[in-house]
């Protein structure tokens, strides 16, 4: 059966991370929401119910019987079974919001639903960017169990120092870890296929280092942290998520942050995650077009895809950076850096669209990933609309 991953009403709340992807393609824990549900339901026939300008890259649903699913929550075993047991025209509701339904996408309408059942259990639901790092420990624990069940980890090299329980460490095939310290007393640690932890690193779980990613020499990694596939991370990080294909390769601190794909933080880029007066952090909300109180004392950087910082960049607590921005001017940029900003400050000229394509093509070619016509169309929509 076709899985239809719906953005529901959440897409705008996750901007700028969702400018370039549906909600289901965000990463938290070890997996993206899409990957998690495919593994849970053992189904890889997927489509997306998302913004029209994204549908060129992310396929629309076929017009047939489907499981319509809001993906941005962690289910319990009971809820998973409830989803599997749904019959045609039945749905599950959580806190007055539809989260799953068995319907036909031919003439799609929620009027097809004849029976709604409330989920009574309390779920971890991700409703805004800061929820991704706030509940990342729970997501890592969930994915760790999902991915490692009935499997055996590769052995940890004897050159490393280890603290904690060995069952809380899983090393995939081809991964390398030498002369580092690994501490699972504070949380599980997952090292993905062909990932590398270079000499002198200190890892304090929960941590997920995904496929083909690297912790550079002497990196200090505090959990709960997820580094997506094909990333390089150095310096000091604490409770961050990087979706994939991005680099923070040098010294500098980033904490309580979410960074999209194809980003690069220049050497000694630092992002504050705590205000000097210890007040709750405000973040820009694209839906309300205002700075909203997060209720969090610790919140750092939310950065959209393809954005960059120059060396020695200093970012204020609670900074939001759009897509394809280039921050390189002296001083602290504002707490909202617009998409395609050339410089990082309000009133700076826009990064020319053809030049943005060139930079993206060069960066992606290093990973042997093409910039497609669909990618360019997404860039152009963001450039024109925002």
Topology record:
Elements: E1 2-6, E2 27-28, E3 31-32, H1 33-41, E4 46-49, E5 65-70, E6 73-74, H2 77-84, E7 90-94, E8 97-104, E9 115-118, E10 124-125, H3 129-134, H4 136-148, E11 161-163, E12 169-171, E13 176-177, E14 181-183, E15 189-191, E16 196-197, E17 202-204, E18 207-209, E19 214-215, E20 220-222, E21 225-227, E22 232-233, E23 236-244, E24 247-248, E25 253-261, E26 264-265, E27 270-271, E28 282-285, E29 290-293, E30 301-303, E31 308-309, E32 314-315, E33 319-321, E34 326-327, E35 336-337, E36 342-343, H5 353-365, H6 373-385
Describe this structure in words.
The model has no long low-confidence stretch (mean pLDDT 96). The strands form 8 sheets. Strands 11, 12, 14, 15, 17, 18, 20, 21, 23, 25, 30, 33 and 35 form a 13-stranded parallel beta sheet that branches. The protein is built from 6 helices and 36 strands. It is globular and about 60 Å long. It is α/β, with parallel strands linked by helices and 386 residues long. The protein starts with a strand and ends with a helix. It is 16% helix and 31% strand.
